[in-house]
Amino acid sequence: MSSTKIIIPFLIIFICFKITAQTKKIEIAFLADIHFQDLYGSFNDINYQGIKNPHNNKHTVLRTMQSQLNSTRIFNENYFAFKTALDDIVSRGITYVALPGDYTDDGQPIHLRGLQKILNDYKNKYGLQFFITTGNHDPAGPYKQESGKSDFLGAEGKNQPIYSKKGMYASKKNEHPVLISTDIAKMGYTGVLNILGEYGFYAMPNYKFWTTPFATYNYNNYSFKKAQIASNLKQRTYTTIDSLQMVDTSYLVEPVDGIWLLALDGDTFLQKKDGSFSSASVGYNNTIIHKNYLIKWVKDIATEAKKKNKTLIAFSHFPMVDFNDDATSDIKKLMGKNKWQLERVPATNVAEAFANTGLKIHVAGHMHINDTGVHRSKNGNLLVNIQTPSLAAYIPGYKILKINNSNNIEVKTVTIANTENFKLLFDLYKVEYNKLKLEHNNNVWNKKILEVNTYKDFTAWHLKELIRLRFLPNDFPIDLNIFLSNVTGEELLLLATKNNELDFSKALKEIRNNTKARKNQLKIIATPLAKNNLKAKDFRKWKGLDLVFDFYRLRNADELALEDITTEKIKQYKFIYNAITSQTKYINKEDTTAKQLLLFFKIFNSFLNSEPSNHFSINLENNTITDLSKNIN
């Protein structure tokens, strides 16, 4: 047998292997805004283990339910949801996991260590590779800050304050004495990276390539030794307008041949007159002003990725594109420019700047919402901003990006509908609830949240209580709040279809007091309702507050919320929207409530007509997005 005949089969095997390696579909999971707090963490400098849970006799360090239901995120049960999400990722055979910031709830050592332990466990047991970038909660500032919380749950349902330094807080009546531990201080860049640096922040030997905006080497002369030197935080600083040297932990990593993950540090900490630093929560509106070198770096990376045929996916904590489905101007008119976290909406010049770098895909968190934002620049460039839902809010979930080939990215949203042990702390909350009721607290939370059967339902109740306790009183105009809190679905239908001189307060009195007029109007609108397969009696099944709840559900979860809002209900809302917008000429121009309701329904309709956000594909060659939600298995 000739040597040629022996070599050919080996060549065929080698070529087939190479083709398979090049065409293998890579999947990356993105888990944003975990807000991890270690329920079973240990304080290194005090002998405090939390309170004993009668359900399992384990000591637990947790926050009160009252604090959870006044916050945009859950503090405790997300501990279990995080592990469930990681288990789900493992079951899908996914290796690469990116965390776009706020992986802890303020970067305290006790929680950073707990997170590190979990990440290490999944790395060692299942081979997961984690890549992290910064959020406005981790670090909460550039340097360590003394801090603490007054609302840990202590024995007898009382608050247990824990602070990092004496004198920061004085216990109130019916609270436990303050505990002091340095493990509850907020860590700056150095503290966070000392614990989590190995997860992308620093170069690792197994990476194909790793660099920063400040590195002097390139892809062609790369070496791990050079990358190690560039990893040092002293090599990763920029000068602020106040001549301060500040850290930027942005990095680019190639974990597997052909895939470039670009982790951007969008945190911009501006020094105040007292020497402290502002929060970075505003996001890229500040970043592109004070860290504009990032724009050039991203452009260089995008250009190089195209030359070398690398698939470039960026991720960071803050959104780059408006996430309000083109309703931001209307929200501003309705709520006010300083409400509804509108300061976090990226300005058009942010999206324009990043789109023109050549970057096409960016995965973000920060807002705890499921959304897709699309910006097409004046130069014809496409930027798709994918908002990853939080595991600590409604609807809990994460994103999977599958790189099918160099020109096609498939995006799937995975919902964490349930998680083991999420009811484990409920007995402790019951003690808290009973204490609050004994104190005749008017703003005590609704105990029905403890009757839910799934984690998803728990987050829905969290949102419902958040609306009642915080959003309605703080965000909504008083007139609209009062109106929607006292109106029924049928009354909204009748107001929307009155078709004559309309003053809401007078019209509503007539609807409620004149039975004959109401019946006559119901007869008149029966035909248009029937044409839409609707019946007036079905509008009686809901009230204005149900409409507000669905408004927030859509805003938070986008298409995912349609699992919880019936098709029938959506048709009813659309009918009212079309009816009320068609009779604007009849509305009294001095009627504030009527104008506010029109804006409310306009915003609601915008939420119903958004970009695909559940399951879709992005074609990087022709810059198109295709909805695949109907094809989900």
Explain what this protein looks like in three dimensions.
There is one protein chain. With 633 residues, this protein is of the alpha/beta class. The protein contains 19 helices and 21 strands. A seven-stranded mixed sheet has the order 5-4-1-18-19-20-21, with no helix packed on it. A seven-stranded mixed sheet has the order 9-12-13-14-15-17-16, with helices on both faces. Strands 6-7-8 form a three-stranded mixed sheet. β2 and β3 (58-60) form a beta hairpin. α18 (567-581) crosses α19 (592-608).
Features:
633 residues; alpha/beta; seven-stranded mixed sheet; 16% strand; globular; disordered N terminus
Strand order of the largest sheet: 5-4-1-18-19-20-21
Radius of gyration, in angstroms, nearest whole number? 27 Å
Q: What is the tally of helical segments?
A: 19
Q: Helix- and strand-based class?
A: alpha/beta
Most strands sheet? 7 strands, mixed
Mean pLDDT: 93
Strand content is 15-25%
Morphology: globular
Q: Please estimate the helix content.
A: 25-40%
Total strands: the figure is: 21
Distance N terminus to C terminus? 52 Å
Sequence stretches where pLDDT stays below 50 over 5 or more residues: 1-23
